[in-house]
Amino acid sequence: MTEHQHLVAGRERLDAAMAGRSAWPERSPWLREAVAVLPRDGFAPDRLWRWDGRAYVPVDRAVDPAGWAGELYADQDAAAVTQVTGGLPTSSLSAQAVVVDMLDSLLLEPGHRVWDVGTGQGWSAAIAGWRAGPGRVVSTELDPALAAFARGRLAAAGVDVEMLVADGSAGRPPGRFDRVHATYAVERVPWAWVEATVPGGRIVYPWGRLGHVALTVAADGRSASGWVQGLAQFMPDRGPAAGAGPGAGGPAAGYAQVRGDGPPETEHRVERDLVPLCEDWDLRFALRVAVPDAVFTTAVDEDGTSAWVHDGARSWAALSAAGGGTVVVHQGGPRRLGDEVLAAWDQWTGLGRPSRYDYGITVTPGVQWVWVGDAATGPRWPVGRAAAAPAAVG
Fold it and tell me: Which of 92, 94, 139, 315 is flagged as catalytic?
C-alpha cells in the first residue's frame, strides 16, 4: 500500500469506529463533515513518538510511512505524541473522539467569535474555523515553534485563523468571544477566560488530569458554571503561571521518590475490596474531586487488588491486599493520604454513588469549586487543594 492508501484506510477506520459506538454527536452533525474535510494527518508533524514499553521512540514519516500512519490512526481514543522533552511527552495531536466530544460541548455556531487556547498543531483551531467562518477564530500558542508549524498547516488547509504567540493562561487577546476552547489541562480556570467571554458564552476546557467541563458565563459576567461533559486526559498547562504538582503544569514525583526508604509511620487494617479503583471510573472521578492531588497506581495478585498513592510532594500510602477482602494500609508523610482516599470513597457511597456527569464546576474571581447534583445547594469541594469532606452550601 502507498502512504496515501494507508492514510485513507486510517481515516475510514476511525470514522467507522466512531459511527459504530455513536461517537459522532447527533446535535453537531457538522463535525463529521469537518473531520473528513480536515483530517488529522494534515496537521501532524513528520515525526511522531511511540511508547515501546520503556521509552518514547521516534516514528518518522519518511522512514516508516505505514508506521507513521498507523500511529496517527491507531485508535479513536488515542492521542498521537508529537513532541518529547526530557523523555516525557510535551505536546500531542489529541484523540479524534475527544476533539469531537469537546467541540460538540462547545455548541459552536457559524458566526461565533472563538478563542482557541493552546493551538498545538492547529487541528482543533482548523475545525473551529471551518465551522465559525473566516476570521472568526483567534488561536494562541505559547511555543513559537509550534505556532509557526500550526500557522503553516492552517494556511495549507485554507482555513482563516488568526495565530498569536502568547500564554493563554496569563492574558487574553483583544475583544470578547462567544466561545473559549482550551486544548490543555488546567486545575483552575484562569479568570481571563471568563473576562474574555460574553455573558451567556461558553467555555470548554480539560480539567486537571481527568474530565472536561463546559461552563456558561453568567449574565453579569461575574461567574461561570457548568457540568462535567466526559472523561479526557490532555497535556498540562506549560506556562509560567501554571505552578507545579499533579494536573498543574509539572510532572508529579513518582511514588518511589515520595515514599523514600524509611519505615511507614502508621499501619492499620481495613475491610475493603479495591477492585473498583481499577474498574469504576465514577469512583475514580469522585476521588479526583475530593483528593485532587492523589496519584494512583494499582496492581492485582493472588491476594487481590492493591493500590499505591502519593501526592507528588511528601505524603504516600500503600493499600496492600491481604486476602479475604481486607487491606493493610501503610502511610507516611505529613498527611494520612490513604485515610483521606478511603474517607472520600465512603462519602461518595453515602451520596448515592453519583456519576461523573452529576458533577459540575463554578468559577468566580476569587473562588472555584466542584459541586454535585445542584450548583446552589449540592455538596461542594474547593478546586485547587484537597478537601476531606464536602461543605453544604448555605
Answer: 94
